[in-house]
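G.,

No rush on this.
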Amino acid sequence: MNKIIYASIAVASVALAACETQSAGTGSGNVRGTSKPVAFTWQGEDNTSGDMTATFGSGRVFHGTYFQITHDTRVDRLDPLWDGWHYDRRHDTWRYWGPDPGPEFVKTYSGHVVANLHDDNGEHMRCRFDLVNPQRGMAGGGEGRCQLSESDKEINAEFPRQS
């Protein structure tokens, strides 16, 4: 009987610890130059990555993975960031956001969060956010912008600090 009690306590402790390490939050934004709203939600998988969703006022939804860039980020882990983007070095205004990011990308974006979201029609939205408190990741709050792949429209975004 004691083994069952100890096993139950161990399982509950692991579940509780998992809940404490995961974080989640919301953000808000708008399409630049308009008052069209965009609502953001994020769910952390670990300290430096997780899932993000952006929902436009029209009901259009983009979903994907975000990454916080740190000094020890491996570039190959960031491969999903370039899905759906046709890079043109002459016309791309997102500095260092090329198909072969290399160490310059990590150096430039260290302490920032980057994401590549997509909708059901295959359009992509890339995002980069400046964190207020990088040690806390997305939970520390931040702001930034996103860009749609098909129209080049940009979205301003803010994420409040989570308590």
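When you get to it, here's the other one too:
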Amino acid sequence: MTESSIGERVFSLPLRVYIEDTDAGGIVFYANYLKYFERARTEFMRSIGFELRRGMAGNINYVVHSLELKYLRPARLDDLIQVHAQIEKIGRTYLVFQQWVTDENGQSLVTAWVKVACVNFDTAKPRALPSELMAKLA
């Protein structure tokens, strides 16, 4: 399959910022955005009827290959935020997600591009995305 761009479906996950998410100044610790993005990607897949756990039984795993982040504004303790995920590109062995976090007013706090590679679980070598996933993304 050739690389394509699908970018229409946007998945959004509402999250509350808890004390465990923040640093001593009450703002979200920068690395926690990676956890938020992971949750949104996982829930995006679940929302289209694709469970990652089933792939593990079939020797399939998904790993973050690379990412780019921009921190624009801080989220703070007790804020209600939205974490968004949208597939920007589909390759033979990977997906590129555009992701972003917004506050209650819709202002962007963090933006990211995350490339997720499909690999064999036992060898960690790249493999083609499963046909079941490709069908659900079509």
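Confidence is low (pLDDT under 50) at residues 1-5. The helical segments are 32-47, 52-57, 131-137.

Enjoy the weekend,
O.
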